[in-house]
Amino acid sequence: MNKPDIGKKYIKVDSKELLYEVRNVVEGAEVIALDTETTSLNVRTGKIVGISITVTEGTGYYIPTYTWNPETEHLDTIHIAGKEANIFVKAFLEMMVGKKLICHNASFDLRYISNFYGVDLLPYLWVDTALLVHTVKEEGAFGYGSPFALKSIAIMVQDAIGLDVQEAANKEQLELKQSIKDNGGSVTKDNFEIYKADIDILAKYAAADTDLTLRICNHFLKILKEEGLEKFFFEDEVMPLYREVTIPMEVEGIHLDVDLMKKTDEAIMKDQAFYRKAVMEELLKLKKVKEWIVDSALKNHPP
Questions:
Q1: pTM (2 decimals)?
Q2: Which pLDDT score is estimated for 7?
Q3: Which residues contact 129 (CB under 8 A, 6 or more apart)?
Q4: Which residues of 152-189 are buried (b: 16+ CB within 10 A; e: fewer)?
């Protein structure tokens, strides 16, 4: 029996008053769950159409920057209080410098933010919830969907986090997909055009995701502590390697000396041929090996 849902308050920020509210929330927060909604999986060429943040379980804010116009089939820039919403979003992101940030699949979101807004939040990444779950439960949400997808993990622990995630997620997905289709967008696995959903539907969906991210983080941090893995996760290996090695490699790539790789491959193949011949010559010197060869030949190819 699932626990009843803890109250959920998901807010689309579209007024001066709500901008002030978000500013105060970000200023006063030590830990912030952060997510982006984008036009593409390409972090270099895509646009961020909005960000969502949560600092308290049950409350999520979505600040939209663009919205899809199905009549013109273009993205319209959103204005709040007479100014482009992008101005406020960049300011909020800059305010997050020095905070403890929580993301799910942080490499995607933080690289997007760096490219699109020029704000580097990577040094302040505190927890990637996918890595957190993997650390304490190696197989993730196996049996609930994609093992390390946000919704799958949430469904797996929905009783513990106080939500009926499965039912809510199904409704959200149906509503979101229908809205995207109605606006001429694609909902295939390879091309899921989430940015074409109606802004109110997208706002609720995005804010719900950061709420889930924070709840999942809080739940699994307790398990991390119980299992004595905090130092391993925060200091020795998981997050330091992710921040300082994995994500920078994804940003900068790896230099490959192709000529050296070809020469090495040729040398390895040459060595293999040499040692193969040497081994066969040594084996054929053994009486038992010769007898085995003759017996096998007679058995498989009798006179």
A1: 0.82
A2: 64
A3: 102, 103, 104, 150, 153, 213, 216, 217, 220
A4: bbbbbbbeebbbebbebbeebeeebeebbeebebebee
Determine, yes or no, domain membership for 3: no
**Number of Cβ atoms within 10 Å of the Cβ of 249:** 11
Q: What angle, rounded to 10 degrees, do the helices at 199-226 and 129-136 form?
A: 30
In this prediction, residue 1 has a pLDDT band, given cuts at 50, 70 and 90, of very low
Number of compact structural domains in the chain:
2
Report the CATH number at residue 115: 3.30.420.10
Indicate whether 4 belongs to any domain.
no
> What are phi and psi for residue 222, nearest 5 degrees?
-65, -45
The answer on pLDDT for 2 being more than 80 is no
Residue 13 belongs to some domain of the structure: yes
Phi, psi of 140 (to 5 degrees): 60, -145
| 271: containing domain | 258-300
Tell me, yes or no, whether 2 lies in a domain.
Answer: no
Does one domain contain both 291 and 151? no
281, 213: one domain: no
Judgement on whether residues 140 and 193 belong to the same structural domain of the protein = yes
Average pLDDT over residues 137-154: 92
Q: Each residue of 252-268: pLDDT tens digit?
A: 887 888 999 999 999 99
Q: What is the pLDDT of residues 265-292, one digit of tens each?
A: 999 999 999 999 999 899 888 988 888 8
Rounded CA gap, 44 and 166, in Å? 33
